[in-house]
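Researcher: Quick sanity check before group meeting.
Model: Go ahead. Protein one:
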Amino acid sequence: MFKIGEHIVYPMHGVGIIESIEEKEISGEKQQYYVIKMMISNMQIMIPASKISSSSIRPVTDIMALKQIIQIFQHGEPDRLLPWKHRYKVNTNKIKTGNIQEGAEVVRDLSIMKKEKALNTSEKKMFDNAHAFLMSELKLIKGITEKQLEVFC
């Protein structure tokens, strides 16, 4: 499915690169594993090839989706009526999908709320992580301009 050297997005971890595909024997069973180096955390993970399609790992978004992502980021409002714990759960679920549009919504909403008042510690950490994940992926989109990147800063 993925090739060595290819960039991928792994929900809740961000952008990574496929370093190798190795065969390992674990508990007496041989399997192929994708060895992925995560760019933000500098962590290395191994995922069985048989589970890669159910893991929500996906390729980096392309330039064609960028306009929609910019639209999402520039338009819309957070649900200010939700208690923060419920909002946190909703945002966590959006990030877990690995969908860049939903990640952009989380960054947008928390960014707007951050301008209005300080975020609590959990939401601040979520904002920082979601923003880092979003930016790490956007920077890899072939053809993206600096001006387009500035929209998300």
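Researcher: Fine. The other one?
Model: Protein two, sequence then structure:
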Amino acid sequence: MALAPWRWLLADQVGPHFLDDDTQPVLLVEARSLFAARPMHRQKAHLVLSALRHRAAELGDRARLVRAGTFRAALTGLGEPVEVVHPASRAALAFARTVDGLTVLPPRGFVTDRAEFAAWAHRRRGRLRMDDFYRYARERHDVLRDLPAPARRPRARTPVDVPPPPPIVEDDIDAQVRRDLDRWADEGTRFTGRDGPRRHPATHAEAQARLTHFLTHRLPAYADTHDLLRDGDRQLAYSALSSAFNSGLLDPEPAIRAAERAARDGAAPPAAVHRFVRGLFGWREFLWQLYWYFAPQFRGAGWLAATQPLPEWFDRLDADAVEARCLADVLAGVRDTGWAHHTARLTVLGNYGLQRGWRPADLADWFRRSFVDGADWVMNATVIGMSQYADLARVDTRPWAFDGTHVDRISDHCAGCRYEPGVALGDTACPYTGGFEAFWHRNRERLAADPRLSAALAGRDDPKRRDAVLAQEDKRGSEAP
């Protein structure tokens, strides 16, 4: 009788849906090289190791956990057939195809098949928009078909009272992970951000408990706090489960169906369910498919005037160097937790880098390393394509550029900030307002057809003002605002 092949579970494949049955032997690998190339957030490194080790403990005698310098060293000499579910990055897939005796299985953890997406994209003749894909996918997979379209609701201007998620309780595995990372740091491995306690799920049980809590207690308020920023409340009514989905702890389709049931049972309003499902079944699926559909690199990375390196204060998550309250609060959240919700990422972090012409690839790499949910397939499209508008409008039709008055409308950070959101020049000029005008002036020939940007600059385009703003922002340069 032929031996059953080992199922190699990668660090982003640690959920139960990556196994076929309860008997197959499982291989898990800790490769030190994964943490050595570029400084990774300490909490992301902890989460990766904790998830692998917890999964090995759950599987018991079925699992073999190999610790090695590289993945190739771990696989060399195994002497038995091995298979792996399609990796989530091109680099990992290319490596897998060079390993003798390693079989690559189809992808899991996504609803839409890649061939199905490619056929849809071919019919679109290059015009690929998330909204169009989302409508197609909902009809194709019968998602939210009988749920009424959400009515427009005003944003909540006061904090929404939602209970905190179930706490993460660290155990002996986490304690050993922390000791190992401390030792690695002493040996020269570099990390960014601050150490735990662990805030994100490392097991399927923890992730499922968080998802159940979100669907019951936080989903009803999700639409009310969507697209808002609140000083001191960095989670609002979000689930903060992106790392659990991206690490494979949760399968998105059951979560989508559970949200549908919440709407049908009257446990959550349609507006909230539509928002949640749109993010999980719309944007997440769309970004995954775009990553594999397009060539290995997004073309047009120099389309906008974006050639500046990341400043050191930003790369090191030095929130204490920043006076602008919105940026200081969001950057401190990344430093302390390795996470921020999507509005903070786009409107505060990405918007600031876009205005200053930071290199899109550098910023995407920063998001990958600094966020616990960071992955190539997510950050290439959302940062390079959507946030930094460097892919010739493949992901979005306009750059996510906003001035300080927009930040003021959606947040409470501007109250008490030394900068004034409506001021572009002078000592109290908001770096987002001055930065927005400078960004538009530098790229005006490329962006002249964008009606939103043109309207936002109306009355602020006389030559003297333009020259003063450009001179001011050039002088600011890479200094922390």
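Researcher: One line on it for the slide.
Model: The longest helix spans residues 270-293.
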